[in-house]
Amino acid sequence: MNILVLGPGCPKCTEAEKIVKTALQEAGVEASVEKITDFQEIAKLGVFSTPAVVIDGEIKCVGRVPDKNDILGWIKG
After folding, report:
1. Which residue of the set 1, 8, 9, 10 is catalytic?
2. Which residue out of 13, 20, 23, 65 is catalytically annotated?
3. What is the pLDDT along the chain (77 residues), one digit of tens a residue?
4. Helix, strand, or coil (residue 47)
5. pTM passes above 0.70
6. List of domains in the chain
7. Which of helix, strand or coil describes residue 71?
8. Known active-site residue 61
């Protein structure tokens, strides 16, 4: 599983990354988590508002910090 956390490094983007890592650890799921901060790379993915989370190429949320239950549902689903 490949998870991208998109954002320039603002507090909300940092929080989103932290919540993703916490959810993975709780679920016992192995995944690579990559932080993308370059706006050109973010735009290439079709995302124009951050923070955003992309799992295996599928955009899961844009413009908000997901809660842990959202992430657990996405990684288990």
Report:
1. 10
2. 13
3. 999 999 998 999 999 999 999 999 999 999 999 999 999 999 999 999 999 999 999 999 999 999 999 999 999 87
4. coil
5. yes
6. 2-76 (3.40.30.10)
7. helix
8. no
